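User: Predict the structure for this protein chain, please.
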Amino acid sequence: MVQKKKVNDDVKSFKPSSAWDSITAKEQKILEKRCTDYLNFIAECKTERATVEYVKTKAEKAGFKMLPDLGKGKKLKPGTKVMFINNNRAICLGIIGKKPANEGIRLVAAHLDVPKVDIKTMPLYEKDNLALFKTHYYGGIKKFQWVTIPLSLHIFAIDKSGKTHSFVIGEKEGDPVFTISDIAIHLAQKIQMKRLTNEAVTGEELNIVVGSKPDPKTETNQQNRVKNMVLRELEKQFGLTEKDLAWAEMHAVPAMKPAEVGFDRGLIGAYGHDDRSCVHAAFAAISEIDIPEHTAAILLLDKEEVGSAGPNGAQSGLVVDLIAMLTEATSGENSLAAVRNATRNTLVFSADTSASIDPNYEAAYDPLNSGYLGKGVWISKFSGKGGKSGSLEVDIEFLAKIRKMLEEEKIPYQFGEMGKVDEGGGGTVARLIANNNIQVVDMAIPTMSLHSPFELISKADYHYSVSAYKAFMSKM
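Assistant: Here is the predicted structure, written as structure tokens:
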């Protein structure tokens, strides 16, 4: 008689649960401290320049010293903290590890830039008794989200004498703010309501109201009295002329403050989570490391939102320059062979945000393969659009190491893609870094209302991202 094989009724399925279920009472205190630090950071750092300055200042206080130029360095002891700044628009922090650089570096890469409204080179004009700034938006935005909200201006200029002017208007209590107007619903039926959504507000309609009073020193029958009043205030308060504006770096960003969201305070709402939540998570992680096995580093890049172009983006030689400098710092060598060995053995987490599933718009997502707020760090095995165009697809061998690390550290994780196959997709930094023959995986923080003026992330996801980046850099 043939015996029947016993059926195992305990079939194991994999379905990520809430990351909140993993948090102990002790860990809750760590979470709240990390999130409070992040709230302070995201309130202060609304531009790339401000973010670089913030990280630099905090790093210097923590003992990070500037890396010498290539060819001038010397071998540094394990535990030495180093820093590298590129054109005041990209920054790297590193901690020299116990193992030589030819065994690779553990690098977390994130981007500093955020979609925003930049001010045009010749911005100021007067029309219908108002002074306005012309703008040119930066990155992928829904333009209609930027009208009728309070905006602050962040201006950095160097005048003809070489003097630097840096100021922010609209962030402090009592500051004036700025805004972009919108047509009243009563008048919008023909001029706006029949437009397609992406044309509801055009780029040339994103003009910022910056003044309304006429200049009392300009004759009443003269033109541009309101514009002249703005120019008078700019020179009086900030020492800037109209010509200086043409040579300045000027951004308009939401003046809204970050805040905890929900009755349970489990979410953080703020402008700039993409990608400054990952920037600060990476910074918080390396700040908690003593002496890592491999040299640990974070690299904070610019221009991701427009293709990672330029000398501070992931398409530049900045990644390899950094590896070369760290190779020299750990071994005293800077030969091509030494640098290429270090590059080939380097492992990278591409720390970025990605669009979590939204209960109001589920039709754009595959619920089985989407990231969710509050379910932990989000691993993307591949990126790209449609048929994986422009994709990075991580090797399973690398993923196996990550799995082991996450499970040993008890860090909750989930897998997902950005939307349905023919609906969404994206990603740049990971793919571009991988072009250097570097193993890279996307490790994202799920973000709702991505690229809007007020994005949402979960405190739990942020907390576990810090833990994942820390474990990766210090132990893997």
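The radius of gyration is 25 Å.
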